[in-house]
Amino acid sequence: MSTSRFRITGARSHITSGDLGITTSELHDLAPAPPARPAKPKPVGTTRPRGLPRGSFEWDLTREGYTERWPTLTAFQQWLRDECNKNCIELRVHKKETNTPTEEHTWVTKTTYVCTRKGTGGTKHYDRKTDREFKIASKRLEDGCKCCLTIKSYPRMDEILGLYRAEHTHPIGDLNIIYMHVTPEVRMHMMEMLRMRIGADHVLRSIQEDPTSACRDVFRAPVPSKRAPVPSKRAQEPHPSKRAPEPQPSKRAPQPSKRAETEHAPAPSKRAPEPAPAPSRRAKRDMPEQNPIDMVSSQLCPATLSACPISSDNLSRDVNMLITHGFECVDFRTDLESCGGCGLSDASHVCTAIDGMSSVSCVSGRCQVNACQRGFIPSADGELCLPVLD
């Protein structure tokens, strides 16, 4: 029996969208949606803790090494002055940053200080005109200085944190003084004393004796001005005058006779010598004794004024004692009521209230009558004007 292969065909098991007369997108819309997956419940009490905000107070204190702390900005400024004075260095602002308001406002300002031997950066506005060498080299080092101080302030806090690297690549102390500046406060104090005609030596001594002055202000010595007048090289030596010599007295002129001198000489008095009057405490001083007063006044007061102590108990002529206890510059021609405290103890010590006086002065805190009016004569001690008796 012969066999043959055959295939049974029937209806198609796969139906396309074209058979149904719809598009593919409409067929996807008719398809049932997949079942939704159930949400996993969150475990209670297992939330991961959030870390410290970067740049915050706690972050800088624990991770960035900001170990220096000051309660306020004023306390930091005082510490900075003391640190510079102790080590004879200068720290100046190099950069200042301000944090922009963000979602996490962790800090407000950030200021960086550097040593002046490194330089604060920037472009110089002055163009050097000469290549001459100076006795003191430039303060800026080629490799700079490693010393750096960074401080930060934080929102809603007065406390300041700081990161301080105190290592220097140059000597500090007395060897660094020549590279420092005089502070503005001491500079103003020096200018005020110089306006009062106080000598440079006394100004320097008063600054050195002040314990609050900075190191540079203490060790700085007065330097003569480079603009001081110098003798001209073109000045010529004086030549002898071409004028005729003045006539000199003749050596043969008649001399007074010694015999005439002996004949007309007054005979010595036979009366007993009168005792010399006792020196008055208020008498006017002679010129050698007044010179120290004038010298002190020229150093402490302008040319037309004289220096007198404020208190009559302190009548010292030393410049340092007058500066310590207080003095005032008085014009004897106009102000005769407060010199040396004349009017402090009693109103009768006012020099202008002396009866019959026409000229009066104040010498070392005491009234001295120079001249009296008509009908009056000065007393022996120079204190009063006595009426002339008819």
From TrEMBL:
InterPro entries in UniProt? CPL1-like, PriA/CPL1_fungi
Annotated region Disordered: the residues are: 26-56, 215-286
Tell me the ranges covered by the Protein CPL1-like domain, including all copies. 327-385
Pfam families per UniProt: CPL1-like
Stretches of Basic and acidic residues bias are at 234-245
> What name does this protein carry?
Protein CPL1-like domain-containing protein
